[in-house]
Amino acid sequence: MKAKSTILLFSSCLALVIQFVLATPAHAAKCTITSGGVINLNIGESITLNPSKSTSPTETVLYSRHFPVSAISYTCENGATVNWQSAYSRSYAKSVYSNIYITEVAGIGIRMKWPASFSDAYYVPGKSLNCIEVCTIPADNVLVELVHIGSVAEGEHIISAGEIAKAYIPTDSGEVALMHVNLGSNIVIKPKSCAVVPSSTFINLGTYDSAYFSKSTKQGEEVKWNFHVSCPTASSIGLTFNSDNYLFGAETGEIGVISGEGYAKNVSVKVKINRIGSVYSYVNMGSKYSFKSVIEKNINMSAHLYVKDSERANITPGKVSGTLLYTISID
């Protein structure tokens, strides 16, 4: 009898404990931004892509940009480990290509990464690693790439304006926003018979200290690269070069540098093109360069740091980078 009473008493206590646990709300870790503020990256440029109509034999980057963003920090109550996440804001399915997701335009994929200098784990959608109690994401870049991954139908296609990706802290009470990436205008896709790949180059010339800029030299180490033009049949084409880093009063071949935290100020980049033999000459920005009977052609380019003597006293050290844009026309 005593044993039976003990069992009944234990069962009653267990039931009370279960009721108490069920009645007690789960504690949701509260996370707040402590410095930097929510990042709102608005891609305001007008983007028109001209991929070939046919299926690309591999992923072909049509557009690639690094957008600098500031640092941001957050903390969560009670020392909670809450790792931030990134995601596409649209229903994009994963493609067969690494880290590329299929956009609303068949044959065109997107690849994004933040911070751009971090490991592959940070491609969108991604997750931070081991943010314990206090988490700081340093000032870096957001990589945005649009990629030709399949056949594109004839006609004009649109990737609509609006939010395209986000980063946030997941909590039991909802998402705490860290970053929004928005398209300021529609991206227009117009297939052409000839394509230039990629449509731009991010020129990274390295990082320079104050001691370097105090020297009399005007050039850093020259960086070389190439881009590819392809046409299904022999075609006469025109290539025009520009930069989204506008520089007032620029000399021939000169473009502005990316600005922001960690970037050098009052320096510029000079760009050259190789057209004949081994000779490179400075590019006239905005002017058309003609090429005849093109089926497959690599265009060789180079760039170097440029310092004007009139600006030498005003230079601040840091990274030196710029962006060169290519536009193709069929003549």
From TrEMBL:
Gene3D superfamilies: 2.60.40.3310, Fimbrial-type adhesion domain. The keyword Signal applies. It comes from the Bacteria. It holds the Pfam family Fimbrial. Residues 1-28 form the signal peptide. Keywords: Signal. One of its GO terms (cellular component) is pilus. Residues 186-330 form the Fimbrial-type adhesion domain. InterPro entries: Adhesion_dom_fimbrial, Adhesion_dom_fimbrial_sf, Adhesion_dom_sf, MrkD_recept-bd. Residues 55-173 form the MrkD-like receptor binding domain. One of its GO terms (biological process) is cell adhesion. This is Putative fimbria adhesin protein. It comes from Erwinia billingiae (strain Eb661).
